[in-house]
Design brief:
The structure holds 2 protein chains of 2 kinds. Chain A is an alpha/beta fold. Chain A is built from 11 helices and 9 strands. Chain B starts with a strand and ends with a helix. The chains are: A alpha/beta, B alpha/beta. Strand 2 of chain A pairs parallel with strand 10 (about 210) of chain B.
Chain lengths: ~250, ~350
Amino acid sequence: MSENLITPENLVYKKTKSMTDRILHYCPGCGHGTAHRMLAEAIDELGIQGETIGVAPVGCSVLAYYYFDVDMQEAAHGRAPAVATGIKRVFPEKYVFTYQGDGDLAAIGTAETIHACNRGENILVVFINNGIYGMTGGQMAPTTLEGMKSSTSPRGRDVKTMGSPLKITEMIAQLPGTYFVTRQAVHTPANVRKTKRALKKALEYQKLNKGTCFVEIVANCPSGWKMTPVQSNKWMEENMFPFYPLGDIKVPEK
Amino acid sequence: MKELRLMKGNEALAEAAIRAGADAYFGYPITPQSEIIEYLMAENPEERTGMVVLQAESEVAAINMVYGAAGCGKRAITSSSSPGISLKQEGLSYIAGAELPCVVVNVVRAGPGLGTIQPSQSDYFQAVKGGGHGDYKMIVLAPATVQESVDYVKLAFELAFKYRNPIMILSDGIIGQMMEKVELFEQQPRLTEEFEWATVGKKPNKDSVIVTSLQLQSEEQEKVNLRLQAKYREIEKNEVLYESYKCEDAEYLFTAFGSCARITRKAMEMAREKGIKVGLLRPQTLYPFPVDAYRNLAGQLKGILTVEMNAGQMVEDVRLAVNGQTKVEHFGRFGGMIPSPEEILNALEQKIIGG
């Protein structure tokens, strides 16, 4: 009987081709794994594994190239959009993406982010925003919320001395160089599906040569936030989403 | 077809980049080398050869664009001057660590800090000792003429791909700004080869290509370092370039590189007229340093004077090379000042012959 079940019309699940079999090093409950998977599925569904070149950042996803089964380059901290520019300019026909965290993209790499978007580089920027430096152990990020505690804001982020959380996604949406800008999440099945749709659309747009596509994924960081995965998702909904509301910020004009 | 032209150093170098078959130039304006990107933009090599030229938002971005293009197995080049080269050090360390080929031009101006826009050789240490973090080396070519600035671009790309290593052309404000007669080499074809180490898109049934300088396991990172060191020993064995003038009967030796060597050659001729038996050794590669050339001459010499437009940098490598066999002193002008042949001759008489 079991043999009869294994037929194409009964297929409900298969391994993502554009991901390797390596075991993810991410903490239990972290959103990175799901975000990786959605991007890899989008690449699979478009059939562009052999035409895609990714750029990994410095941060928790520094080893992203172990998990994505596509050709990848590891960039210096914050420089992924510049590296991606170099790749895309010599290979305009390839699909190029960066995968960056908030410290990488919105602090040390702010200039590279804004100028790649301002030039309208035809790349996909995937921005994981969990409001904290995960890899180095929970320090304050540019996106850390007001009053939020971290190892370098132990009494909570004081905006008088530490500045306000940076809404870089809204900033780059102002630039004529960006074509599609959206903010998503991966903590519920419904959000996961929306994120995948956004990533797939962003990759498809790359062929139009209309500018930079930017997909922010607001994510939890159970270890950095010192919460259980369930608590962290609840905290994210109650605190992150009001400040970083989900949804499309800039969509192509019809 | 070879072609004879009167050209400014920076513009000749830019033309050489196009003719060498470069795929991409990424740069940021800074005096005294902005003519390189200006020439390229005006010349529009995208039309001529398909070469990409892009003005980056910073030197940091430019060197990382070079990283990206080099990681795709393309011929990528950037240029800057001293303060901008300091900004590129992070990227250079990553490029060396990831073993990518590229060419970096430094048209040196005087420092430290913002310094001045006048010529200098004060980035010698930064160029030959690493500059960025970690144990790495770049091959450093030191042109003394506009002709060499042109020829070294082609050579630099050859060496970059031979060793998958960053190559620096260490020029200076004199060579960048002056006009000389130059013979331009023929247009070279752009690369069509796909390298197995380059990210060109994953091939079916092959592992994906990863360009990285990261190895979290110390055992693995030590292996990377050992591989790099073995490569540097090969480079030291194979790629030393230098010129010597009148060294056969020399009792004294001048040594200088780049534009300074041309002034020193005049001082050598003046000394010869006075009956002083002095030769001149001009390293063309500053790394690998022509250690054996100095060592072989040391026995016949009563002393060596290094002449540099800095406060004494190459002199340390000359001392290491001769290892106490003969006296080594330094004479330098710096801060954008250029030594005259008279003061160089005077320094030889005071510091070496009379000293």
